[in-house]
Design goal:
This protein is an alpha+beta fold and 314 residues long. The protein is built from eleven helices and eleven strands. A hairpin with a 5-residue loop joins strand 9 and strand 10.
Length: 314
């Protein structure tokens, strides 16, 4: 299996930039993207103004809309310039042409299959590229292509939540903690897993695809209501954070007045970097609105505890 480090990542980007000038332009534009920090409870939340992400943020993901458009992740419909790294069997490892970060990969199943459950191949990806963090958006939790199985990756330094988790969930404490167990007030609720390469760890890994939320309208369990991030810490211990969800988008997304906010949270947003394609939202999104968005799309700390206490996991 090919291993990825910073040098090989830079080489791949250089090759793609030479062959695909439009891609280079998009990444060059990202260098001037505006960012600022908003303090919400005990966590610094980053906001990024990124108009290039409007395609993903506002994507229509209902069945009829998906049926009317060609799948842009299928090989036949991708730009001819887009190359793939041969790292994981069954997957194409691609540079994301609509980036959030200066290093942004999309890892795409070679087969056209839906986002039905968390792909455990994210663990193999983390082992092959320990400098990266991998993230997955469930079919109704920020995925703009829920009809084609995929996950994404960026440099670990881009997600501040990793440092929070590693600080408050000690590496030697294997198993599951909830964000409510952390000795700090956090605006977003999640499960933190430290998985060791032993029988207990393998059992924990096997239940990962079952850790998801529910539909707020019906109350029914829904595998599409989840975001996940996966990485190896400095000791090469496997870390996983799961954000069970209850809604695809917050109420403010659909409003038709000055209180509208075009934000459609995926894993990156849930992990503390909120992507905003409109400047007016970037300028005025408040700590109170951020907390409300997290509580409407994700679970509250109390809901998280209740749901997974019932399952006997925490």
């Amino acid at each position: 299996m090919l291993m990825l480090n910073i040098e090989s990542i830079n080489d791949f980007y250089d090759t793609q930039f030479r062959q695909w000038p439009e891609l280079k332009e998009r990444y060059d534009e990202l260098l001037s993207a505006e960012r600022h920090i908003v303090k919400v409870d005990g966590m610094n939340i980053g906001l990024q103004f990124n108009p290039g992400r409007i395609r993903s943020t506002a994507a229509k993901t209902d069945e009829s809309s998906l049926a009317r458009r060609p799948c842009f992740l299928c090989k036949a419909n991708r730009p001819k310039e887009q190359l793939s790294l041969g790292i994981l069997d069954g997957w194409d490892w691609l540079i994301n042409p609509f980036p959030i970060f200066p290093v942004h990969f999309t890892i795409v199943s070679k087969a056209h299959e839906p986002q039905e459950e968390i792909p455990l191949d994210m663990v193999a990806a983390a082992d092959a590229a320990p400098c990266l963090v991998f993230f997955y958006n469930g079919a109704r939790s920020g995925a703009s292509a829920p009809d084609h199985l995929h996950f994404q990756a960026t440099l670990k330094e881009e997600m501040p939540l990793l440092r929070v988790v590693e600080k408050y969930h000690p590496a030697e404490k294997s198993g599951i903690l909830t964000s409510a167990d952390f000795p700090v007030s956090l605006p977003v609720a999640f499960l933190s897993l430290t998985i060791l390469p032993d029988p207990e760890g393998m059992q924990l890994l096997s239940i990962l695809p079952k850790l998801y939320g529910f539909d707020a309208t019906t109350g029914a369990p829904d595998p599409g209501m989840v975001n996940v991030i996966v990485w190896l810490d400095e000791a090469r211990r496997l870390r996983v954070v799961v954000f069970p969800r209850k809604a695809h988008r917050p109420e403010c997304f659909a409003r038709n007045d000055e209180s509208q906010r075009i934000v459609s949270p995926g894993a990156v947003d849930m992990a503390g970097m909120i992507i905003l394609p409109r400047k007016e939202d970037f300028d005025i999104l408040s700590p109170e609105e951020i907390a409300s968005i997290y509580n409407q799309c994700g679970l509250t700390q109390a809901e998280l505890k209740s749901l997974f206490n019932d399952k006997g996991l925490v």
